[in-house]
Structure prediction request, 855 residues.
Amino acid sequence: MHKPGKSAYPVLAILAFMVLAPMIALLTVPGTSFIESESLAFWKSAYLRRVLIFSLWQAFLSTVLSISLALIVARAFARHGKFPYRSFILKLFGLPLVVPAVVAVFGIVSVFGSGGWIPLGRSLYGLNGILLAHIFFNLPLAVRLLLPAWQSIPKQHWKLAQQLGLNSWQQWKYLEWPALRENLPGVGVLVFMLCLTSFAVVLTLGGGPKSTTLEVAIYQSLRFDFEPSQAVVLAVLQFSLCAIVAMFSFRLQKLPEVEITSSSLQCPVDLKTLALNSIILLVAVTYVAMPILAMLVDALNGPILQVLMNPKLWRSAAFSLIIGLSAAMLSVLAAWLILQSSSDLYYIKQKRKAGYLEMVGSIVYVVPPLVIGTGLFVLIAPRFNVFDWAIPIVILVNAMMGLPFAIRSLGPTMRQNKMRYQRLCESLNLKGWDRFKTIDWPPLRKPIGLAMALVTALAMGDLGVIALFGTPETTTLPLLLYHQLSAYLMSEAAVTAAFLLGFCLLVFWLLEGLIGGGGDA
Amino acid sequence: MSRITQALIAVSCLLQFVNAYAGKQTLTIYTYDSFTSDWGPGPLVKKAFEEQCNCTLEFVGLEDGVALLSRLKLEAANTKADIVLGIDTNLTAEARATGLFEAHLISANNTTLPTVWNDQYFLPYDYGYFAFVYNKELLSNPPTSLKELVENADAPNILIQDPRTSTPGLGMLLWMKKVYGDDVSIAWKKLSKKIVTVSKGWSEAYGLFLKGEAPMVLSYTTSPAYHIIAEDDQRFAAASFVEGHYQQIEVAGLVASSKQKKLGREFLQFMMSEKFQSIIPTTNWMYPAALAPTKMPPAFKGLIKPSRSLLFDDSEIAANRKLWVNEWLEAMAE
Prediction:
């Protein structure tokens, strides 16, 4: 009998420590305790109730819309293997993730604002704007994460479908949907988490305080109100809500019953479907490209040379890259260790336990970095020089925030590897490095490339934790961008934003190419 | 990763060592990061002060004045800061209440503020007024009072910031409170019809304004000076309101646990000098707190001058801020 590996547990223990220790530290900071009367009034307030309902409602709508649209787009992509610039478009689809919130808001407004290409006027501000922005962020991400599911459909199945003369709906029902059910809940939860914790986008495009998420309330408690314990309880609340949603959605997960063999899709399509798919792809690409294009137009009107000649830009880029790459390596390693255990558990049919392992690893994402960062600060500041610790902590927190992306990218392939090759490896007594090299690595290259690219990009676009520590002399690209914005230098900032995007695209291209070994997703 | 970190730590240790060897003291100043950025006053201030002090000036840039205060509360007596620079008069009462500051003992009689300054703990370095900025070519008849903006159905749409996350947002809240008092909720309800959106911070709102999302944005009376001086663009102006404009005064204070109070006071003294003060107008785009009007850049002379400067007592703000923010939230929720 195969014994499940235990590699997930130390990782989860570290994660638990990284979440719990800062929270406990924050609870010890003097401030109003959350059981005092003034604070009790807050917990009973209509305000908190509104914030809770709104957070969940907008996250739910954003997720449902992003995922359903992503399914349509990913299906069109999967069935249209030769769409022009397919591989470039898929790289482009990694970009929205790195766009700092404020830049994304400007991009969305350039497209849909009153002076935009598709002016929506004031109706942009409110739920409309929030949904438009969240689809911009999450549709491309979901497409990238869902697309591999189509490749897991065996070639023979398509052949059979063709022989049976199944129509498009029947193909969906009998071939594609079963393949997706493995992935979909996880991707759904990831998108839900991203939307639930959305802050500046929701506030600015939401039109006013009616559009307040829990994340805003947490920020407010830690900053203007300075009630760390209230922030901790709100963070726990947010975490619990997400855990409930995650648990519920994993009930919907279903693993493929049959042992599957890898194939590149050769789904037969007629001319009519081809045309329809082309239109779907064109619309999706246009939608994602428009705000990015708007940013580029702003940048082209800006003082390009002046910004590019600033040595600080390059120093910040290098610094961002170091942070991004380090965080990505840590994240991928942690994801790999967690998935080693969980795929063992899947192999011996302990599906629920496996699901929990992956879930715990993923949902640390919803603990606000501001809470983790501030808590760690409380722990470290009295004992050590915080500036020496700032960089490792920024890397660590970014690695944590990248973990759900890494788990989502690697998960399906690692599980399939286990199902397919475990018995073979046991009979050949193939272990350790030899096994990794010959069995695990070849199919994992692409997902690892994607995970490295996603987490690096995510960390490079992140402003959060580094701003919190305020280390002297160290600046990341997003921080530089914010400095420019707050110094009225909007057009310089536009150039920096475009540079950040270009830089991330390059990193994406390099990482996916070098690690993933070329080709597309 | 760890090697890079170690290398970075090693370099920073080395730098500290070099400084110690050269017998130079380091004065650490916590401030907000737009002060320390390349475009802010920070680099020029550092250069000017280091020329006269035989010391090293080190800035630690945090997000904003609020982040500065909460950082200080978290660190309490363990703070590395010798000076905290960048808290405004909306936060001074809370800052004083932490007990972490020491009286500055510096005379503030050369200030050019519209009001007399007699705070023992904090010294002002610049000030400004909140105002609605507009594009003269696109808006020919801006409202002439806050009342007109609130009550006239034809008044232009505006962009403001959120008082829960932004200092100008809080400034707007206090401005409305000062003018409307107990009737402020009704006024906010009326005004909310003209608010296109309430952004997280100043940058978002100002950026949206420049993109043409609304004819007016909450900013400072001094904002047009940036466009005139830095961009040679005369199109922007601030609307002058007859009720007066809410004032923001930015201050610095000496941290009680500092081991370099002498040097700290030297810096505060320097802060009130012409050298420091003349850096402020075209880097922080605010009015310096102690600079003769004749020394001001010409573009500042064309700016609107509020007939009255409105300011709450800082203790009143500390006592009521939460209440007023909740009042605002309730008014805006409908």
Remarks:
- Chain A is about 75% helix and 0% strand.
- The mean pLDDT of chain A is 86.
- Residues 148 and 184 of chain A are 11 Å apart (CA to CA).
